[in-house]
Amino acid sequence: MNPRSIRIALLSLFAVIITGCAIVQNVVPMPNAQNVTEIYVVHNPKVLMEGFIDEMCSQIRNMNINVIVVSSTAEVPKDTVYMTYTANWNWDMAMYLTFFEAKVYTDGRLLGYAVYDSRKGGANMGKFGTTAEKIRPLLSQLFLRTPAATMGSR
Questions:
Q1: What distance in Å separates the CA atoms of residue 110 and residue 30, rounded to the nearest whole number?
Q2: Which of 18, 50, 73, 128 is buried most, with the most CB atoms less than 10 Å from its CB?
Q3: CA-CA-CA-CA dihedral for 151, 73, 27, 138, to nearest 10
Q4: CA–CA separation, 59 and 55 (whole Å)
Q5: Cβ within 8 Å of residue 141, ≥6 positions away
Q6: Average predicted confidence (pLDDT) for the chain
Q7: 61 C-beta neighbours (distance < 10 Å), count
Q8: Residues 104, 28: Cα–Cα separation, whole Å
Q9: pLDDT at residue 149, rounded to an integer
């Protein structure tokens, strides 16, 4: 192979790798989110990262929304807004958030959701960073609010 053919082959391979290294962020804001002053967060015992629920609830509180953590949807009063969530981490030179999903409901009806998915992030270095930095913009969009400037990070 001549040098030009090798260069074209390498560029083609690089293009294929890069297109397969996507980090997906998708948010459908809840309607009338500005009117929400209180939310019940249903604790997910399958999320094992220490401090995660505290960080997530702190970020929501920084948007002037009172947070009440409950252990099941059975504890959520009728006609109130509640949120479920899941999150997973992976290791690739460092721990990083692989997947986060938050869904907001009232009376079992989905109002909005936020998803962060770096499972196909592969070589994308954007997957690294604190969990707080990854979920902050998603929660902000979900609740249509700008968080306060003084927020913790994990």
A1: 9
A2: 128
A3: 10
A4: 6
A5: 27, 29, 114
A6: 79
A7: 15
A8: 10
A9: 45
List pLDDT tens digits, range 91-109.
777 566 778 999 999 998 9
**Residue 80 near residue 38, CB atoms below 8 Å:** yes
> Do 134 and 52 form a contact (C-beta atoms < 8 A)?
no
Q: What are phi and psi of 99, to 5 degrees?
A: -150, 135
The answer to whether residues 152 and 55 touch, using CB atoms and an 8 Å cutoff, is yes
CB under 8 Å to 48, separation ≥6 — which residues?
none
Q: What is the DSSP string of 89-132?
A: EEESSSEEEEEEEEEEEETTEEEEEEEEE-TT-TT-GGG-S-HH
Identity of the amino acid at 92: D
Q: How far apart (Å, rounded) are the C-alpha atoms in residues 154 and 150?
A: 14
Tokens of 38: 């209180």
pLDDT score of 73: 93
pLDDT of residue 48: 85
